[in-house]
Design a protein that fits this description.
The chain has about 325 residues and is of the alpha/beta class. It is built from ten helices and 13 strands. Helix 6 packs parallel to helix 8. The structure holds NADP nicotinamide-adenine-dinucleotide phosphate and guanosine-5'-diphosphate-alpha-D-mannose.
């Protein structure tokens, strides 16, 4: 009988890592989830399947920990989803962001090169790399113009992945993923801030919601659809770079309309625009061309913008009602 495939997921406690780990379990994988030390447990997103995966200690800031994890557990695939992923924090902590989000990619690639260069690798690259966009929609060949220390760090991570592929012949792929959200999205990101805020106001737990730039536009998809694309990239005979997006763009304001509208409220009565939430440099509009992913991977998103907003608001209503 053939051995099950074994995958290491860095960032398993995050939104995407939790969905990817569940998806891989469904595909029959042995799943290793890398977690860093913390004074309190932060396993909310994985507790419902935690006993079915192996948690291994490691940190992208610590090279030896990465080599040890690979030597001890011998994965056949590594998905590098760990990063300092919140754009505003990248201005207040630019060096930490560079260490984790940029150099962290080299550390894990080099650990693979040392331990077993046949391990297949996925890097979580980002549409933030397009920043002040050079063309619309953005595809795999669109030049980058990052607008935040986070975006700059992701450009480094993207190119070092290509460099290890070309220098050492490694099966290393880079997924240029546009924004994707879910019921498990961190509370600081705008969609979750809005769904949670609308639910709190509806339940009488808050009176207002403070936001920054309402006119920013994003190409928002559903996270479980996007982790499927990550896996498909790693299964290809040839590694490559793939844009993953819905091809549709919407504004922050539209998300507010949908989320508040779903609970019968007019967002304009509760929204306060807070200049402190405006970023030093903004990415005004992103929209991706995922035709290569459709053609080569056979990938297409299943959940659209409206359904996404409704799912998120419904989940927050349930969550807040049980915590009341
Ligand atoms: P997330 O929810 O913020 O999760 C980030 C994960 O990285 C967490 O598990 C976190 O661990 C871990 N991490 C942070 N620093 C680490 C370090 N030094 N060593 C080890 N682990 C560390 O992010 P996400 O939304 O799931 O995104 C996953 C990846 O895709 C990230 O690389 C992100 O930049 C990228 N990406 C996301 C999107 C999107 O729209 N979601 C789009 C494009 C690209 P703790 O739980 O301990 O903090
Ligand atoms: N977070 C936040 N909070 N964003 C706000 C707010 C607010 O109160 N008000 C307006 N926005 C606007 C931001 O200015 C930005 O233009 C947009 O909402 C989206 O912000 P986020 O949800 O924080 O996501 P992001 O686009 O900056 O970054 C996310 O997507 C990237 C892919 O393009 C993150 O998941 C990154 O890790 C990811 O790479």
């Amino acid at each position: 009988m053939s051995q099950p495939k074994r995958a290491l997921v860095t960032g398993v406690t995050g939104q995407d890592g939790s969905y990817l780990a569940e998806f891989l379990l469904g595909q029959g994988y042995d799943v290793l989830g890398m977690v860093r030390r913390s004074s309190t447990l932060n396993f909310e997103r994985i507790h419902h399947f935690q006993d079915r995966i192996t948690l291994v200690p490691g940190d992208l800031l610590d090279q030896v920990s990465l080599i040890d994890v690979l030597r001890e557990h011998r994965p056949t695939e590594v998905y590098n989803l760990a990063a300092q992923s919140f754009v505003p924090t990248s201005w207040s902590q630019p060096v930490l962001t560079g260490e984790a989000t940029a150099l962290g990619v080299t550390r894990i690639l080099d650990a693979i090169r040392i331990v077993d260069p046949d391990i297949r690798f996925y890097q979580a690259s980002s549409s933030e790399m397009f920043g002040k966009v050079r063309e619309t929609p953005q595809n795999e060949l669109t030049p980058f113009y990052p607008r935040s220390p986070y975006g700059v760090a992701k450009v480094y991570g993207h190119w070092i992945t290509i460099n290890y592929r070309e220098s050492y012949g490694m099966h290393a792929s880079s997924g240029i993923l546009f924004n994707h959200e879910s019921e498990r999205r961190g509370l600081e990101f705008v969609t979750r801030k809005i769904s949670h805020g609308a639910a709190r106001i509806k339940l009488g737990q808050a009176k207002e919601l403070r936001l920054g730039n309402l006119d920013a536009e994003r190409d928002w998809g559903y996270a479980p659809d996007y982790v499927r694309a990550m896996w498909l990239m790693v299964q290809q005979d040839e590694p490559g770079d793939f844009v993953v997006a819905t091809g549709k763009r919407h504004s922050v304001r539209e998300f507010c309309e949908l989320a508040f509208g779903h609970v019968g409220l007019d967002y304009r009565e509760y929204l306060v625009q807070d200049p402190r939430l405006i970023r030093p440099a903004e990415v005004d509009t992103l929209v991706g061309d995922a035709s290569k992913a459709a053609r080569v991977l056979g990938w297409a998103p299943e959940v659209g913008f409206e359904e996404l907003a409704v799912r998120m608001v419904e989940a927050d209503l349930r969550l807040l009602a049980t915590n009341q």
